[in-house]
Design goal:
The complex is a heterodimer.
Chain A (H helix, E strand, L loop, with lengths): L3 E7 L6 E3 L12 E4 L6 E4 L5 E2 L1 E3 L2 E2 L3 E2 L3 E5 H14 L5 H4 L2 E7 L3 E7 L9 E3 L16 E4 L11 E6 L7 E7 L19 E2 L9 E5 L7 E8 L15 E6 L6 E6 L7 E3 L4 E5 L7 E9 L11 E2 L5 E6 L9 E2 L6 E3 L4 E6 L6 E2 L3 E7 L27 E9 L4 E10 L14 E6 L6 E3 L2 E4 L21 E3 L12 E3 L1 E2 L4 E3 L2 E6 L12 E8 L1
Antiparallel strand pairs in A: 1-31, 2-30, 3-11, 3-13, 4-9, 5-8, 6-7, 6-12, 10-11, 14-28, 15-25, 15-30, 16-23, 17-22, 18-19, 18-23, 19-20, 21-22, 24-29, 25-26, 27-28, 31-39, 31-40, 32-37, 32-41, 33-36, 33-40, 34-35, 38-39
Chain B lengths: L4 E7 L4 E3 L13 E8 L2 E6 L4 E9 L8 E11 L2 E8 L5 E7 L2
Antiparallel strand pairs in B: 1-2, 1-3, 3-4, 5-6, 6-7, 7-8
Classes of the chains: A mainly beta, B mainly beta.
């Protein structure tokens, strides 16, 4: 059974953006729509079911046309919806920063969830349950739950402003909470979440559980996770065949009696609605209760043992929904932006007019990755154009991904299969070079603390003409050899959170002074493991 | 199964499902009593395991649909956090084993 793949092109000038929720100063929450009808973990979309009619914040956009295919991976479909909303070209954050996620929701399990790019009480998403060739039924929006955004409950009267450049590849939302992360003097609860959950006595899981997110609630909560393997003991086996989890919480304030299928290893699943996430490495589970207890502590202090503190004294923590998290709190600096995340962003708390920041005050930053330039089928070739001898061609940026026929992808390798009619490549007078570079969500780059770079705009030929990569790329190869096996090819990262995606790659050619291979066609080949 | 290459499962009710009939993701994993990897006249059988998996290594010239080819096929099973893999190279039939530790 073959996996269906595509080759996505990005303009090398593309760059991500970060928004404050459409002028909301990063305050308030996003409105959203969840398709609550039962769905599996893949979607078949065709010409009569590929239009999604949406209104965001009351603005009825033109319908978006989704990529068609059989058993498309749910994570791919979510990203496709996201990119199509952005591609409407509204130049309005409610659309440009709207995000669709394939995520688990208490009481629902794994579902498609579409968020507005705006924050606050005007934020909303409406999925229209009619229209020509509507996709709403196949996507699970035949029944739906739609909740509008809410105004902030912060005590701080000011806002947050965002600066810097977002070097992420995919959309991402950061949650920023005022806290000095000091529950009862312990450092074992970064962002209020137990770093090491307590394992139940009968739990035989031998893999690694990782906690994430920022816990923000008015009281402490211990989440008790229960695991059931009636349908299967291992992840990555497809809906109906995987372990499931549900959880209870202290005082039953944030329970989910609905099961969440643990569909994928190394994938963030939410626990409750207060910001906690978990992921698991690929190992078998057993039915047990409790499987883990995750103790979470509310933000008590803005600084020291003070519940509030002014800008310049108060501290903050953060986590993104893709797992870019603070390990220790950072102090705010009055009049100066301070770091947010590891992908190039900065945050500044402004316009507070002397108001203090209070523990638990929260802000959201909505990030939008670079937009691909290719359509649903991707590209079938790269055209380097007319290249003069002794010069470098344009640099092309591409990403390899599987869209269906697979649940997991790993060990992505990229090689030059044929250099075509070029006659001065590794020919003893090797003056024609095939360049390569990569960075991405799996293999990030940068210098600490900005070391979460997943994408870098305007990568130039000079960045990949050496085997020593610049700080903003993970790896480079100045001259790919012609190879015939995966083992001889270049390693490329892969990432399961937003599809089955390989890390972006940059390629170009340098023509030697004596090169005569005019109109040469060359072939690259991607190797990948999938199941 | 002459000249067949791929996985095959036998379910508790006796049903036989071979690769190409349905996607692996739709195979009811809890009902598997045998997972076999076929490579022409050769076969490797796995039985009595708690959880099984399959994996292929493939390659493709990006963007060229007809260029997809299988490089190797793998079946395997879990031992807790360890994945025991049986690999067979598609072009040579060469067999190897590997244990991946995800603890």
């Amino acid at each position: 059974m073959s996996a269906n793949t595509r080759w996505v092109a990005y303009p090398i000038t593309a760059v991500g953006t970060a928004g404050d929720g459409r002028g909301a100063g990063c305050k308030g929450t996003r409105g959203y729509s969840i398709g609550t009808a039962s769905v599996g973990d893949s979607f078949t979309i065709g010409p009569t079911t590929n239009n999604l009619h949406l209104a965001i914040d009351g603005d009825a956009g033109p319908y978006i046309t989704l990529c068609s295919g059989t058993n498309l991976d749910a994570r791919f479909v979510a990203r496709d919806i996201t990119e199509k909303m952005h591609a409407l070209g509204k130049s309005d954050e409610r659309w440009d920063n709207a995000i669709c996620r394939w995520e688990n929701t208490p009481g629902q399990g794994n579902r498609l969830k579409i968020y507005s790019g705006a924050l606050g009480s005007s934020s909303s998403v409406t999925v229209t349950q009619s229209g020509t060739n509507s996709a709403h039924t196949v996507l699970g929006f035949g029944s739906k739950s739609e909740v509008g955004g809410s105004a902030t409950s912060n005590t701080y009267t000011g806002t947050a402003s965002i600066s810097g450049t977002y070097y992420g590849l995919f959309d991402e939302i950061y949650t920023v909470v005022i806290s000095n992360d000091d529950p009862h003097g312990s450092t074992n609860y970064p962002r209020g979440v137990a770093k090491s959950p307590t394992k139940g006595g009968s739990n035989t899981y031998a893999g690694t559980i990782t906690t994430g997110g920022v816990f923000n609630h008015s009281g402490d909560i211990a989440y008790v996770i229960r695991i059931d393997i009636t349908n299967g003991a291992a992840m990555g086996a497809g809906t109906g065949n995987v372990p499931r989890m549900q959880w209870t919480s202290t005082g039953s304030v944030d329970d989910s009696s609905a099961w969440t299928e643990l569909l994928y290893p190394d994938y963030w699943f939410k626990v409750g609605t207060k910001g906690v996430m978990v992921k698991f490495t690929d190992a078998t589970f057993n039915t047990c209760n409790p499987a883990w207890t995750i103790q979470c502590y509310k933000p008590d202090y803005a600084q020291g043992t003070n519940a509030s503190a002014p800008v310049g004294v108060a501290q903050y923590v953060w986590s993104s929904d893709r797992g870019d998290m603070s390990s220790t709190p950072l102090a705010t600096v009055s009049g100066t932006p301070t770091r947010l995340g590891s992908r190039g962003l900065y945050i500044e708390f402004v316009n507070g007019a002397g108001s203090n920041l209070y523990a638990g005050d929260e802000f959201f930053v909505i990030c939008n990755g670079p937009a691909p330039s290719s359509g649903c089928d991707g590209i079938t070739s790269l055209n380097y154009g007319n290249v003069t001898v002794s010069t470098e061609s344009d640099v092309k940026a591409v990403m390899f991904e599987a869209t269906s026929g697979a649940i997991e992808m790993s060990t992505v390798m990229f090689g030059l299969q044929s250099h075509g009619s070029f006659s001065h490549h590794n020919a003893g007078n090797s003056d024609t070079y095939f360049r390569f570079g990569t960075v991405g969500p799996d293999n990030t780059a940068g210098n600490s603390p900005i070391n979460g770079i997943e994408w870098y705009p305007n990568v130039a030929a000079a960045d990949i003409d050496s085997d020593v990569s610049p700080s903003y790329l993970y790896a480079t190869e100045d001259n790919l050899a012609v190879v015939a096996t995966a083992d001889d090819s270049e390693s490329v990262g892969n990432y399961p959170q937003c599809g089955l995606t390989g890390d972006p790659m940059w390629v170009n050619i340098h023509l030697g002074a004596s090169e005569t291979g005019a109109n040469s066609a060359i072939n690259y080949r991607c190797y990948f493991d999938y199941s | 199964m002459k000249n067949f290459r791929g996985w095959q499962v036998q379910l508790k009710d006796g049903t036989i499902i071979s690769e190409g009939q349905i996607e692996w993701r739709k195979v009811p994993k809890k009902n598997i009593i045998r997972l076999t990897l076929f490579y022409d006249q050769r076969r490797w059988d796995l039985t009595g395991k708690e959880a099984y998996f399959i994996k292929n290594r493939a390659s493709v010239v990006p963007g060229v649909r007809g260029s997809f080819r299988v490089e190797s096929r793998t079946i395997g099973f879990y031992e807790g956090a360890k994945k025991v893999c049986y690999h067979v190279e598609e072009s040579t039939g060469k067999f190897s084993m590997e244990v991946i530790d995800n603890s």
